[in-house]
Amino acid sequence: MKKAVEGFMLKLVSNAIFEVKGLIHPPGLLIAYPRYVPALGGQLVKVYPWIERFELLRGPFKAYVRFDPVLGDEFCEVPWRDVARLYDPVEALEELRKRDELDPVERDAVELAELLKEEANIPWRAIGLTGSIMLGLHKPSSDVDIVVYGRGEAMRAHEALRNLMSSGALRPYGPAELRKLHTFRSKDTPMEFDVFARVERRKVIQGFFGTREYFIRFVVSREPEPYGAVRFSRVGRATIRALVVGDEEAIFTPCSYEIADVEVLEGPELEPIRAICSFRGRFCEHAKRGEQVIARGKLELVMERGGRGWYRLVVGNEPGDFFKPLF
Known about the structure:
The chain is of the alpha+beta class. 24% of the residues lie in helices and 36% in strands. The chain has seven helices and 17 strands. The strands form three sheets. Strands 1, 2, 3, 4, 5, 6 and 7 form a seven-stranded antiparallel β-sheet that branches. Strands 12-13-14-16-15 form a five-stranded mixed β-barrel. β12 and β13 (255-266) form a beta hairpin. The longest helix is centred in the middle third of the chain and has 17 residues, at 104-120.
């Protein structure tokens, strides 16, 4: 049985490449969004800003956009029958490790993966490469995208990143690099630079390995979650202020922050709003327990089997969403 979760990528019969998002997928479908699309001459062009992805979903890929009755909103859902090739991050790393000759980008990727694997004492089956390197589309300036699967493995790898950052094997973004990152991300995620710099500087899931930029993604499992065990319903958009009371899921993609003392600044005043979550890696490690935060996003009802409903704010699905601590 074919399976795919966050970190996997797929090539369509049209040669467009989509990235798989999340752990919940409808039967026969994959929730995935365009990452590389064919341009004139057949060359693949990278698509990153959400506004550009939305334009594609209103155009050439609109047939994949459908309302999902379990997830309670419109998603880009690709039928398995349209998948020409599935890219597995763990298999991609294994293939590179077996090669005799690697280019500088591939060599840095393998060396960083080996360093993280050894420092965290995790098995090779828990670590993989995603992004342009997995696809063979990287350039000399490309960054390294690593994914670690498994809750326990991720926790050990996150602690290992802290140790590697402290020892100098890895380094955080410097001032100029933060300016560049802010310019890029603020295209669809507004945040004042001083707050942005303070938030991003303390993260260990991103930074530099030598001169090579890296990003580490943690996913709780390589197995999809059961479709329909939890149901979701969109109830509008909201801006809230809240206190973070739990950050145990902050390192994962999707990430989640348990919140309390919620004040609805704009939108439906519903209770209880228990969490802020996101399917975008940029919001991982974004706030810590005890911090006041403000966020804007999609408000949705979460219904668990046999339980009472509660609400969460999902940030990052639309341009203009934000999530920031109130330092």
